[in-house]
Hints:
By secondary structure, this protein is an alpha/beta fold. The protein is built from eight helices and ten strands. The chain has helices at 44-51, 91-95, 97-101, 108-117, 133-146, 163-176, 189-195, 224-238, and strands spanning 7-15, 18-28, 33-37, 58-60, 63-66, 76-79, 151-155, 181-186, 198-203, 206-210. Strand 7, helix 6 (163-176) and strand 8 form a beta-alpha-beta unit. Helix 4 (108-117) packs across helix 5 and helix 7 (189-195) crosses helix 8 (224-238). The structure holds adenosine-5'-triphosphate and magnesium ion. Adenosine-5'-triphosphate binds at residues 15-16, 20, 38, 40-46, 56-58, 81, 187. Belongs to the ABC transporter superfamily.
Amino acid sequence: MSAAPALRLSGRATAGGAPVFGPLSLEVRAGEWTCLLGPSGVGKSTILRLLSGLGGDVAFDGVAAADDGAPLAGRVALMAQSDLLMPWLDAVANVTLGARLRGEAGRRDRATGLLGRVGLAAHAHKRPHALSGGQRQRVALARTLMEDRPVVLLDEPFSALDARSRALMQDLAAGLLGGRTVLHVTHDAAEAARLGQNVLLMTRAGITSETPPAGPVPRPFDAPETLAFQGHLQRQLMEVE
Ligand SMILES: Nc1ncnc2c1ncn2[C@@H]1O[C@H](COP(=O)(O)OP(=O)(O)OP(=O)(O)O)[C@@H](O)[C@H]1O
Ligand SMILES: [Mg+2]
């Protein structure tokens, strides 16, 4: 894996002439896990799409780039908010899809291993329609982990999971993605309090940085300082108009 760059995004986004967000400015530190927390509709997914080069019909007047000057294309894995699994492929084939499109052979073992790590060993040959919402989300997570990119953008990656699976998948992702530049969108204050080495709070007024407790991530979900930070973040979210 090449060195993980810092990311920078600043500017204003519009869709059909209507504002989506901004003007705003954010920085994502190199090789660290940053959570982007904010209410529904504020523009979090749009930020991830712009950074991954999939702005679609959103017009953006600023910069969305790596700060090392090299293009981000080819260095980013995006786990989108909807799982985007191919309905005609089973779980293993969905996880290996990127590798197969790039003509890389022999990745099946790694894919099967990752499906085991996300708790789906017994479901590896099911197609998406035969999986639950949380199982589909774990296939999408395995596909993202399979990509092995220095920059990883996660859009509500654990939102469909029960509390226990969510904590397990948070631990797994934090372990496997350590040292990469991760931007993780969530609207869950508990999740940001557990995982964020940096936490950015996005409201219509812009982006502010919140200082998390010291120490390694993932933080214990029941440690007093984790819970206090979760409460602080939730309080900030409640005060958004
Ligand atoms: N292609 C588009 N055309 C028109 N409006 C758009 C487009 N993309 C996003 N928007 C609008 O921009 C705003 C931000 O959308 P976005 O999906 O980024 O929000 P979000 O913060 O990810 O919300 P959520 O937490 O609900 O996923 C919304 O009001 C949405 O309707
Ligand atoms: Mg979104």
